[in-house]
Amino acid sequence: MFATGIENSYPTIEGGRVRQDEMAKCRHYDFWARDFDLVRHLGVSFLRYGPPIHTTWTAPDRYDWSFADETFAGLRDRDLTPIVDLCHFGVPDWIGDFQNPDFPEQFARYAGEFARRFPWVQLYTPVNEMYICALFSAKYGWWNEQLTTDRGFVTALKHITKANVLAMQAILAVRPDAIFIQSESSEYFHADSPAAIARAEFLNEVRFLSLDLNYGHRVGSEMYEYLMDNGMTRDEYHFFLDQQVKHHCIMGNDYYVTNEHLVRLDGNTEASGEIFGYSVITNQYASRYNLPIMHTETNVSQGERGDEAVRWLRKEWANVLRVRNDGLPIVGFTWYSLTDQVDWDSALRENNGRVNPLGLFDLDRNIRPVGEAYKKLIADWKDVLPTQSVVLTVPIFPPRDQEGEAARKMRDQARVTHETRDAAYRKGANP
After folding, report:
1. All structural domains of the chain with their residue ranges
2. What are phi and psi of 355, to 5 degrees?
3. Is 2-396 in CATH node 3.20.20.80?
């Protein structure tokens, strides 16, 4: 699955007064049809994409589907398979922020309504980068609620992750063969000195919390105490342990040069640059969760010489092949995003309008060298990998085949399996 994405972040800053809408900054609202044509030009079949939540979800159980109707019809007409990103770093103004305990159930209803309106969609990322969303919003104080406490972080994390789980359940009720790709940042913390080892080890457990909760993976004693000390209840924790959605999931790992960190003696962190790299860190996540893997995000600036992004693409692709050759079931790769982005040099903390040359195309929709390199990579490898890979094939049908007999049979089989598992779970059995 070779993929790219349309950046659709929309967190708020400055106490909620400013919304950082990347679709607006990158002029996707004006050029969405052209953007979809550029995806096809690259030879890409999968697009990480979602409607802007803040203009689509207008009130509880009220929706404005006008933009989604138009754009998703455009995707279907071009036979592009969307990986639908329903919540990307922000919520509508009316719901407030991620501290709101009503968010999980309300968001699940939104996800279910989306699935009913677009029943041909099979792939979803209900909530993008749950760990980063909670961290930047409620621990670093950068976005949305702009808190800087452990309690704020744990509250945001439990609400965000519960929203993701409930959304998966709501979508499965409509589309029982849905597949969920958890695009999550893959992090690592390196101790700068022996005295920093304990803090680094703690942070290396915190990095797993969103996926631990999402997949019902029991946390260690230190993380359990951390969650309990910062507002999670035993019942809330056991909610996550009792879920049965992991078998519908692909673990998406995002990796950037900023994903590794140096932990100082005082406990503060700074970027370390690439030390381990994607393949080493992904192996750590894979051994914890035992799920199929997808490299769901990467990019780097084109740079002054103009070839830095091309060299990074080659490096990340080599890491993907390394993971594959290790025998792990890696099913896809993504350069994110299609076009340059705006204000990511400040992690969207500042509304400067500064263009960051990170895309396959610039904001005038001219292809960059990395776009040409990605197009060639896809052409070279798309027919080789299926015949040489020992890993699984994901049961996905493109939009043109969604109404075919094979796709209908798969949905019917998935529905029976889902109902059987659900009935067994309600009886207290082990499915």
Report:
1. 2-396
2. -80, 130
3. yes
Give the burial class of 216: count Cβ atoms within 10 A of its Cβ; 0-12 exposed, 13-18 middle, 19 or more buried: middle
Amino acid at 339: T
Tell me the CA distances in angstroms from 416 to 113, 368, 400, 405, one per residue in order: 22, 47, 24, 17
From the first residue on, what is the mean pLDDT of each consecutive set of 10 residues in the chain (431 residues)? 96 97 98 98 97 98 98 98 98 98 98 98 98 98 98 98 98 97 97 97 98 98 98 98 93 97 95 97 97 97 94 98 94 96 97 98 98 97 64 74 80 74 61 47
Tokens standing for 168? 């998966």
Compute CA distances 340 → 12, 18, 31, 44, whole Å: 20, 21, 13, 17
- Going from the C-alpha of 25 to that of each of 55, 88, 143, 257, the distances in angstroms are 15, 15, 17, 24
Q: Note whether 370 and 335 are within 8 A (CB).
A: yes
Q: Within 10 Å of residue 73's Cβ, how many Cβ atoms?
A: 11
pTM above 0.85, yes or no: yes
Residue 409 burial (CB count, 10 A): 10
Query: Among candidates 254, 335, 324, 251, which has minimal Cα distance to 293?
Result: 251
Distance CA(150)–CA(141), nearest Å, equals 11
